[in-house]
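Both lines are quoted verbatim for reference:

——
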Amino acid sequence: MTPAVNCAKKAKINFRTHSYQHDPNTASYGDEAAQALGIDPQRVFKTLLVSLDGNPKKLAVGVVPVSGTLDLKAIGACLKSKKVAMADPTEAQRATGYLLGGISPLGQKKRLPLVLDQSAESLETIHVSGGKRGLEIELAPTDLLRLTGGQYGDIGRG
């Protein structure tokens, strides 16, 4: 099992895992998951890392629907950071312990500030990466926030 699945098990939350055959040639991991599992893309969320304050090693996590994009200014406002950029992929992998396309908001090596798009608040469950390509975890958004110490924010643009 992945650290993400182990994190959910250890916390004894209600969750389900969903596996699918990952295509290494896919352009969008999140869209692939939604299509392969037959799930509305509004319920499948991608995990994106950003660097804060111009420091490539000061990272945070934005979790937004795969059908949209992350608003860098909005996540910066949530985290009180004026300068926000997408994180360097190598730094993202190093900080989380996951490979790109399989970065989960759960079970990361280092606990980072996390903002979950507020669109998740109205959903009973959401799907996030399970820690490897081809694996999704379905859980309540409130459980995701509790396990990560995260917060809701209006950070997604559709």
